[in-house]
Amino acid sequence: MPVRQLLSQRHVKSLSLIFLVGILFAFMAGCLGQNKIASPGSQTLPQAVASDAVQAAQLVVYRTPTCGCCGVWVQRMQAQGFEIQDNVVELEAVDEIKAQYELPQNLQSCHSAVVGDYLVEGHVPAEDIVRLLTEKPDVAGITVPGMPIGSPGMESGDIVEPYATLTFDAAGNTTVFQEHGV
Fold it and tell me: Which residues lie below 8 Å from residue 120, measured CB to CB, with a gap of 6+?
């Protein structure tokens, strides 16, 4: 007897619902799950962390209250020694920061942070922010577009999608700043 005849419409609907719940759970696990916060001394950043520029740096973060992975990213940065001003605001306020730095839509992510004169967009690793503050390139900021699995705040077990931190300027030009997971 064919499988289709064995399963009633009710069973198909139940299986479909279970499948959708499974997909939702997998997505949320990437955004909220398996996010063990390292203590400040458990991972060490490059020597540059001790520099005066980084010690004096404050990340002014703008994120919405509904995005758990953004909160985890904030915790990751705090664990690496950054002072954080965490602004949990409505989406319009986050969009205003992106517009102020003329960040093209294709470079955007779910949260933004300002450090010094730079915009830090999305799930940028702490060591890339340290390098930005140490090297002080002539750019508007750095970004990890989207929400790549394995980036800070988007951990999901041992899965790491290859991604790049990009620099961007006011004209929207980009260069690869650092590759990750390759």
Answer: 59, 112, 113, 114, 129, 132, 141, 142, 143
